[in-house]
Each structure stands twice: as structure tokens, then as C-alpha cells.
Amino acid sequence: MTTQTNSDILALTLAEGRRRLLDGELTSVTLTRTFLDRIAATDEQVHAFVTVTADSALAQAAEADALLARGDATAPLTGLPIGLKDVLMTRGVRTTAGSRMLDNLIPPYDATVVAKLREAGAISLGKTNMDEFAMGSSTEHSAWFPTANPWDLDRVPGGSSGGSAAAVAAQQCIATLGSDTGGSIRQPASFCGVVGLKPTYGRVSRYGLIAFASSLDQIGPFTRTVEDAALLLQAIAGPDPLDSTCYDAPVPDFSAQLDRGLEGLRVAAPREFFTDGMDDDVAETIEAALELLAANGAVIDRTPSMPSVPMALPVYYVLAPSECSANLARFDGVKYGYGARGGESMWADMEATRQHGFGREVKRRVLLGAYTLSAGYYDAYYLQAQKVRTLIRREFDRVFAEHDVIVAPTAPTVAFRQGEITDPYQMYLNDIYTIPANIAGLPAISVPGGFGADGMPVGLQFVGQRLDESTLLRAANAYERLAAWTTIPTRRAANIID
Ligand code: GLN
User: Fold this and answer.
1) Is 160 labeled as catalytic in the residue annotation?
2) SS (H, E, C) 80-149
3) What is the pLDDT of residues 224-283, one digit of tens each?
4) Which neighbouring-strand residues pair with 267?
5) 325 C-alpha to center of ligand 1: Å?
6) How many Cβ atoms sit within 10 Å of the Cβ of residue 487?
């Protein structure tokens, strides 16, 4: 096979890959092997994957080819290779959540999204790197190794789903899944120049997602295009008897409205999302994106004010640690994962297990959460944060009474350098624009919105109404078509590695 053909395959979207497989222009084995070769050639530098499942991927690809040859490939993602964040339980495949605590966990069951992707015919290439238990914004908090940004290997890919974002940007797979508790899909998508979608809370089952903060966590896709995000969401969305927080609502056809364009779309750009904390290069890029939207039929309203939105970050850093301290209590060295043995007592072993098993950031959050939930401080912190959460939700409802989508930056800066941010509070500021959507449970997407300092990608964020991913995807797709960044970022990112 010529190099030209290879680079053509590596840049494929799910939609185009599906077409070629159905037309017999390509086999799933060729497709899968091309991506596995790419991983082998580039992951020494990128470190996007914790585990690569080459043998099972090729076996699944051969099965997919048999179905395709028989004309039986009705499942929508038949034979298409994807990657999974290492926080998703995969039966028989090591799942670590980026933590020494789960160094040797081989799950006995699949997360619902993993089972759904298999039913949809997709092929898993392996598990992608992440900040430990999804706590972080740079993938430097993985217990294993940091992941590099394919655009500039000295920089971070964002986090916590940095491996999933980098894998798509480095053309190691067509699409991946990540999880987003405060921005962990959208911020790395922004840093790596790819599309990242966080669905409405409850749209996608969390069963088999190793929990960080259960009232905020959502699983969603990383893709090259908005169209692909709709396709992947379609495959994973829907009610699940195994997750009682999952909406019973019917799942619409997420691709149906993609091409409706911007005409008459009511777009709010609330003041609080355009603050001084943003770097100039990002601000300029976002302004240009707003002008492009306005020039093509969107009605941009800059007057809405959401005074509680600046409180979303402090609210998150009370609620998320509180929930994480409860969720991570299960890692006691007895039930699963790493367990220290031979101490003076059961308590000593438990202490030693956590001392060794958890990294610094996880310990910091557990301590913070234990404090905010303690009898003496519960009212002052946790309860207060819940009340402000309600205010933030109401402010979104008010804006959505008169607008279809909100537009905002995804992150205040472009990707920063490895090791550049050591102060945890500065790291937390990365999610200042993404956290509000998690607090309110709303769907939100980051799409490539241009380039900032040093030619690094800048993401543009759209936030939608609860359960209205269709309008969100319509707006994002219209912008993507206008801006046409879609193919440029992957090519340029790939060049850096080649
Ligand atoms: N960076 C945020 C945090 O560290 C968000 C993480 C996430 O969305 N999983 O909590």
C-alpha cells in the first residue's frame, strides 16, 4: 500500500469510513491494521494509549469483514476502529483509571457504552491515558506517564481525557470516548484541535464508568467532525436499567438537523463567559468566530448576564471533591485493585493501600471532600454549594427561554507546556468556562475554532438546552462547515509527528 493511501485512510471520518467499507473500497482489517501501525509508529512520542488490544481488534475486524462481504453489516459502526478512555470498564481488558490503585484490575464486565459500541459494530483498539480517576486538566496526573500534545510534543494535551483527544489528533484512531465531569472532554478537544461532545447529564449511561463525581460525570465522543460526534452519540445514548439516573426520554436521530444551518438561530454570548482571565490570542480567535456566525445568519445576543456563573468553579470544587471522597472510599485494598498486606492491623493495611495507591491530586481531593462533608462544615460548604448550583441552573433556564444555544470559549488559554502549571489552583482555572454546563447538566461541545499563540488550536464551545443535543450539533456543524478547520488541524497535527 502506498503512503498516500495510508495518509488518506488515517484522515478518515466515521461517516466516510462507513461508506468505503460498505462500497468494498476498503476492508476493516486494512483499516484496523493501518491504525495499529500508526499507533506503533507514533505512540512512543505521544503516549496516548495505556493498553493496545491489537490481536482482539484484528480478530473483530475479520469478523466485520465477513459481515460486510455477506451484506449483513447493518450495525452503523461495523468495522470502524475507536479508542476508549481507561476509565471505562472493559471485560477481560486491563482498566486502570490512570491509577496505581487499579494497576491490575481486569474487569469481569463491560460498561454499558462499551457493550453498545460493540453492538454497533465498532472495534476497540485499546485504552487511552488519563489523569488519575479523571482528576486533572493536563494528563500529567496519570500514574503511568504524561501524554503529549500531537501539535507540539512539549505541551500537554489537556485533561483528564488527554489520551483520547491526542489519539484522534495524532490519527491513531478515527474516534474515541472520554468522560467529562468539569470539562475533561471539551478542554482536551480544544487543546488538540478535535471535536469533543459532553451530552446532557443522563443522556448516556454511566454504568461501568469508574465514578469520580456521580452528579456531574458524563461519557461522550471525541471525533474529527461534528457529524461523527452525532453518529457516535447515537450509538451510546439511551436509557439503561443499570443506571437509574439515565433519562427514559426517547433518543432522537441526532443527525437529522445537522444541515439546517444558522438562519435564525438565537445565540447568546453571556458576558460572564468573556472575562478578563482569557488570553488575548484566545479572545481574538473567539471574536472572529462570533463574527463568522453573525455574518451567516445567526442572531448573536451579547446582553444576557448570568451573575452566578462565576461561582460555578468554586461550587464545583466543593461538590466534585465531596462526591469523589464518597466514591473513592471503596478503594480500601480489600475489594479490588491494589492492596497492601502484612501491616499491624486491617487499618494499617488500608492506610498503606491508600498511601501508595493514590497520587497527590487524588489525595488532595479526598481530603477536601471529607472536610466539606464533615458534620461541622456540611452546611457551610456542601449545602451552600448545592444552593448555588440551583441558582446557576435557573440562570441557564432563563437564557434558554429566549435563545437556542450559548456560545463561549472552551478554555482560557491554548495548550500549556508540560510542567508549566504546578499550582493546583491555577490548574483548576482551566475549566472556568466548561464547568457551568456540568453544574447545570447541560449538553456542550467544543469544535476547532481557529488558532492562537504559536499556531496552537483554540476551541469554540456551544452549550445547549437539556436533552437538545440536536440543536447543539446543528449549530456546531454549521460553524464547522463555515470555518473549515476540520481537515486542516488533523493534517497539521499529523505533520508534527511525521
Ligand atoms: N479538570 C477538572 C478536574 O480536575 C475536570 C475533570 C473532569 O472533567 N473529569 O476536576
Assistant:
1) yes
2) CEEEEECCECECCECCCCCCHHHCCCCCCCCCHHHHHHHHCCCEEEEEECCCHHHCCCCCCCCCCCCCCE
3) 999 999 999 999 999 999 999 999 989 999 999 999 999 999 999 999 999 878 999 999
4) 300, 405
5) 15
6) 12
pLDDT tens track for 453-484: 998 999 999 999 999 999 999 999 999 999 97
Question: 319 and 385 in contact (C-beta within 8 Å)?
Answer: yes
> What Cα–Cα distance (Å) separates residue 402 from each residue in 75, 302, 310, 409?
39, 13, 21, 21
User: Which of 85, 116, 127, 198 is flagged as catalytic?
Assistant: 85
313 contacts 431 by C-beta, under 8 angstroms: yes
Cβ-proximal residues to 200 (8 Å cutoff; 6+ apart), any chain: 218, 247, 441, 442, 443, 464, 466, 467, 468, 469
Ligand 1 atom closest to Cα of residue 134: 9
The CA 317 to ligand 1 mean position distance, Å, reads 10
Q: Is the pLDDT of residue 149 over 60?
A: yes
Domains, the chain, in order of start with CATH, read 6-268+403-496 (3.90.1300.10)
Q: How far is the CA of 423 from the centre of ligand 1 (A)?
A: 15
- 431: Cβ below 6 Å to ligand 1? yes
Please tell me the distance from the alpha carbon of residue 487 to that of residue 410, in angstroms, as a whole number: 20
